[in-house]
Structure formats: C-alpha cells, structure tokens
Amino acid sequence: DIVMTQSPDSLAVFLGERATINCKSSQSVLHSSDNRNYLAWFQQKPGQPPKALFSWASTRESGVPDRFSGSGSGTDFTLTISRLQAEDVAVYYCQQYRSGRTFGQGTKVEIK
Amino acid sequence: QVQLVQSGAEVKRPGASVKVSCKTSGYPFTDYYVHWVRQAPGQGLEFMGWIYPKNGDTNYAQKFQGRVTLTRDMSTSTVYMELSSLTPDDTADYYCTRENWYYANWGQGTRVTVSS
To answer: Using CA atoms, how far apart are residues A60 and A62, in angstroms rounded to an integer?
Structure first.
C-alpha cells in the first residue's frame, strides 16, 4: 500500500497569512502513461463530509477560492492557502488514487 | 446535480450487523464506482471498499475482508454497505462517495454507534 504522510499534524496561522501543508507518498503517484499525479486534496469541517479541493494534484474544483493552490509531483505535494480566512479552519487531507486509495492522517488548520 | 443520500444513524450491540444505504441521483448510476470510507470519532479517513454498479463487481480493503458486503439495487440507484460482527471499534461515520478517479461527491455520512 502507498502510505501518505502529512506534515505538520496541526498549524495555527494568523488571519491573512499563508498556511502550507505538505504531503509525502511512500511511492510515486505520477503515472508515466499520462504524466498525471494521482493525488487529491480534501477539506473537512466539523460535522461535514470531506469536500474535494483539488484533483490531479493541482486541478482546482469548481467553486474553490483561488487563495487555495495545489502543487508538487511524484512523491512530494503541497497545499497552500495564501491568505487564511476564518472559514478555512478545517482538517485537510491528501489522498492518492494511483494504487488503491489511501489518505494522509490529516492536518488541522486553526487561527492563531 | 449529483446527490448521494445516506440512511440515518444506527445504534448496534457488539456482534450485530449494520446495513447502510446510499441513494444516488443526478448521474448515470451504472457509470461510476461507489466507494465507502469510514471515519472513527476524531480520527482520519479509511477506505473500506468499492462496488461497480454496472456489473456488481466489488473490492474490499484487506482490513474488512470477510466482514463487509457491498450490494446495489439497480431499480432505485442505491448502494448498500453491510458490516457484520460489529465491535465498539466500528463506531464511526460511514460515507459513500462517487468515484471519478478521485472522490468528487460524498454522502452526508451515517453515524454507526456500537455499544452494549
């Protein structure tokens, strides 16, 4: 199984400041046949199901604010919130879909 | 629009089984895999298995092999997840998702509580 490891487990950021979440996979999730990274990012708020933010590592879902960005390739990926807003307080998960389905352990984002 | 609507919360005794439904709408039911993911209280997300409604093919995570069964009802575009031999460690929110490589759409979740 591909193991997904996120860092940090939690972070506190001032409103308007940048938040950066890292995700590392134990094997590459880049598929050579199509040169795409099989990685998604999700946001989960309390009492709600996860919501997809990005697919293919950097393809933003419809309606996701552009202060969110996804980047990376191979085994190392990053989710960045450029200017943290109060509504961005949530737990964020990465997930690989290159081989089976595995999630990172989650990163909790709070306001400092 | 795509919707996945799950059945309501359940409370079960240890050793019992639970069957959760996921009624889909807004897309061709037979064209997309439906996956199940669970989340224990305060914990992360865990893949359980999938079903392909077109032919009923299933695949289960090794952890749940022998305890989970996914089925579908083509007449109502509904997928079912049955989990047997429940223990308190199965207390969790259970989600169905429509898979389009990634999990684009999710049900609202069903809380299953296992307690004596």
So the answer is: 6
